[in-house]
Design a protein that fits this description.
CATH superfamily: DD-peptidase/beta-lactamase superfamily
Number of strands: 15
Strand order of the largest sheet: 5-4-15-14-13-12-11
CATH topology: Beta-lactamase
Helix content: 25-40%
Radius of gyration: 20 Å
Strand content: 15-25%
């Protein structure tokens, strides 16, 4: 997990863990490869940088930009990267799980976000997840578990990760977490919450996470390549709904396009517009930007397993993963940016700040090009 070895690790997870395919289906759309440069500059701490600096300074491995559904730029600075390479997306997976839950709700497999977790997972009765709703899980307000710390070996996430890697029982870890707050009262970022959400989806649909994702999402968006989940080593082999999805950067950008276009792509309605809009509305005070706690940057709020991004009254939102994975969606300008990275550490507020500044600069640049073209045609 350390550089430079991590660049290989993050593109070969199926060589390290058991995995299961998320099939693209029979119908798919090949993306053409573009070599056109994107001449964008951004300002940071009084200095000017371009995208080349961004990739070097923030360890980019893959970078794709869509504008109005068109592929306008891609580059692969990573050592093992390319258009057909599938990248480990870490917690960006959580936002894909959210889309799957929205699809299950649209199809009445899950009846309502107010449904209790124990309606679908009675084995969690009497645990910290008793009395927690699907909505609480989606907004990370379950009140279950400790602060997610990668440096504390006794933290819930450390015990959960250890169980994944060593074949321990994920359910035993989930059952052991303590309640720290009343459900719905406080935000606490939790991969374990998403694992429970994935189990709810599997119980409601009667299929595995990978089978559901393939049938209802991946086979319908025109994906270039199959995706996959790597699995835990326990005998039951669980997909990690909060962190084990792998896909090409181009196909990741298609997910962003789906969200930018209100839940439809290629003429197909995949998930309801209302579900997409729920993903950028951080309406609860404790979910708004600046209110998530000291662990989270002030420019992020949270809604529906997506991060809302402050600035200019826009509806920008993002899916994020540790080590610098970004799916940045600006539906107002219909711009999607997918960036995979191999940061030296799991989380770095300075690298995150620079990335957000640069991605906003890409949006402004493309909007400026649109305005220039409109002025000329007018």
């Amino acid at each position: 997990m350390q550089r430079p070895t991590s660049e290989w690790t993050f593109t070969h997870m199926n060589r390290l863990f058991p995995s299961t395919t998320v099939g693209r289906g029979v119908s798919y759309t090949r993306s053409g490869r573009l070599t056109m440069p994107l001449e964008v500059e951004y300002q940071l701490d009084g200095r000017t940088y371009d995208l080349g600096h961004l990739h070097r300074r923030t360890y980019s491995t893959g970078f794709v930009v869509l504008h109005k559904g068109n592929l306008v730029h891609e580059s692969y600075p990573g050592l093992f990267a390319g258009p057909g390479v599938r990248f480990q997306l870490f917690s960006l997976t959580k936002s894909i799980t959210s889309i799957l839950v929205g699809i299950a709700l649209d199809n009445r497999m899950i009846i309502d976000v107010s449904d209790m977790v124990t309606q679908y997972l009675p084995n969690l009765a009497g645990t910290a997840y008793d009395g927690v709703s699907v909505e609480h899980l989606l907004d990370m307000t379950s009140g279950a578990g400790t602060v997610e710390s990668w440096t504390d070996p006794e933290s819930d996430i450390a015990r959960f990760t250890d169980a994944i890697f060593t074949g321990g029982s994920l359910e035993a870890v989930v059952r052991s977490v303590a309640r720290f707050a009343r459900p719905g009262a406080a935000f606490n970022y939790s991969t374990i919450d998403t694992q429970v959400l994935g189990w709810v989806l599997e119980a409601a649909s009667g299929t595995s996470l990978a089978e559901f994702a393939s049938r209802w999402l991946w086979s319908r968006i025109g994906a270039d390549h199959d995706a996959y989940y790597w699995l835990s080593r326990e005998s039951g082999r669980s997909a990690i709904g909060g962190g084990s999805f792998n896909a090409t950067v181009r196909d990741l950008a298609r997910i962003g396009q789906l969200m930018s276009h209100g839940g439809a792509i290629g003429g197909q309605r995949i998930v309801s517009r209302a579900w997409v809009e729920r993903s950028w509305r951080d309406v609860e005070p404790h979910l708004m930007a600046g209110a998530l706690g000291r662990q989270q940057p002030d420019h992020y709020g949270y809604a529906n397993h997506w991060w809302t991004v402050t600035g200019g009254g826009r509806h920008t939102f993002a899916a994020l993963g540790i080590y610098g994975q970004y799916l940045y969606v600006d539906p107002d300008a219909d711009i999607v940016i997918a960036k995979c990275s191999a940061w030296p550490v799991e989380e770095d507020p300075h690298l995150d700040r620079e990335t957000v500044v640069a991605l906003n600069a890409v949006v402004r640049h493309l909007e400026g090009m649109d305005a220039f073209a409109a002025a000329r045609s007018g």
